[in-house]
Amino acid sequence: MPEPTPTPGFTLSTATSAPSRAMRLGVCGPVGTGKSSLIALLCRELSDRLELGVVTNDIYTDEDARFLRSAGVLDADRIRAVETGACPHTAIRDDITANAMAIEELEEDYDHRLEMVLVESGGDNLTATFSPALVDVQVFVLDVAGGGDVARKGGPGIERADLLVVNKTDLGPFVGVDVPRMVADATAARDHRPVIGLSRTDRDSIDRLLTWVDGRLAEHRAGSLVPVDPGPMAAHSHAHEHTHTHDQGGEPVGVHHH
Ligand SMILES: Nc1nc2c(ncn2[C@@H]2O[C@H](COP(=O)(O)OP(=O)(O)OP(=O)(O)O)[C@@H](O)[C@H]2O)c(=O)[nH]1
Ligand SMILES: [Mg+2]
């Protein structure tokens, strides 16, 4: 048998030069629990040893991106904002196009050198989670000011996000929350998936968070990090209505809630 003639101009790629993609870490949770603060903390702690980027999601503004840029923890250009329009959870779960494009643009702008892109969801209700198609790993953030019972209420993010952060533990005494109890309740609700009680004033808690992030990065680099879907949010309806106009005649033909 003669050797097959190689196709002119065709060389088989050995793939060793293929750019490796940054790990995408999603941060979600209710309004005001400290998502932007947690991202600022990670940037402050990690930016001297990791190439980082950030994508924020806000409904109508770029408030989170502006907060993070003004915190001075990362070059302003490494922080990009996605304005999601009506429903913050939609852009991280149902139609992830705007977020995926923002991440890819960041990676291209930095010559595929980024090692981790942090994605902040718009502050939403208790049940919003990221699509595993958008992020490799996700953190759900609660705070003690939301009350000690919140962790027991469950929902996909609380129960099955890769990490649950119970934030602002320093506020426990002021809001009458027994922090160790809240962390224990959360751990039970999560079937012993990891929970970290965090405060920016508690160095040990920050170190535990960094250890967890480093662990996920090591898995990502080894190719063993498999995105897990915490599950869809609960069925819900919104207070607003949409009027859809279809081609024929231009008259509104349907009003629906979704
Ligand atoms: N006491 C205390 N306050 C904190 C801590 N972390 C964040 N905060 C405060 O919590 C408030 C909300 O923090 P953000 O980081 O803006 O919360 P967020 O979840 O990004 O808010 P949205 O994006 O609006 O949903 C701010 O006033 C922070 O300063 C903490 O560890 N302890
Ligand atoms: Mg925020």
UniProtKB/TrEMBL annotation:
Subcellular localization, as worded in the UniProt entry: Cytoplasm
CobW/HypB/UreG nucleotide-binding domain residues: 26-195
Biased composition (Basic and acidic residues): 238-249
A GO CC annotation given for this chain: cytoplasm
BP terms from Gene Ontology: urea catabolic process
Gene: ureG
InterPro entries: CobW/HypB/UreG_nucleotide-bd, P-loop_NTPase, UreG
Superkingdom, taxonomy of origin: Bacteria
Known role: Facilitates the functional incorporation of the urease nickel metallocenter. This process requires GTP hydrolysis, probably effectuated by UreG.
Region (Disordered): 232-258
NCBIfam families reported in the protein's UniProt record: ureG (TIGR00101)
UniProt key word Cytoplasm: yes
A GO molecular-function annotation: GTPase activity
Oligomer status and interactors: Homodimer. UreD, UreF and UreG form a complex that acts as a GTP-hydrolysis-dependent molecular chaperone, activating the urease apoprotein by helping to assemble the nickel containing metallocenter of UreC. The UreE protein probably delivers the nickel.
Sorted UniProt keywords: Chaperone, Cytoplasm, GTP-binding, Nickel insertion, Nucleotide-binding
Chief localization: cytoplasm
Pfam families recorded: cobW
Name the UniProt record assigns to this protein: Urease accessory protein UreG
Residues that bind GTP: G29, P30, V31, G32, T33, G34, K35, S36
Family: Belongs to the SIMIBI class G3E GTPase family. UreG subfamily.
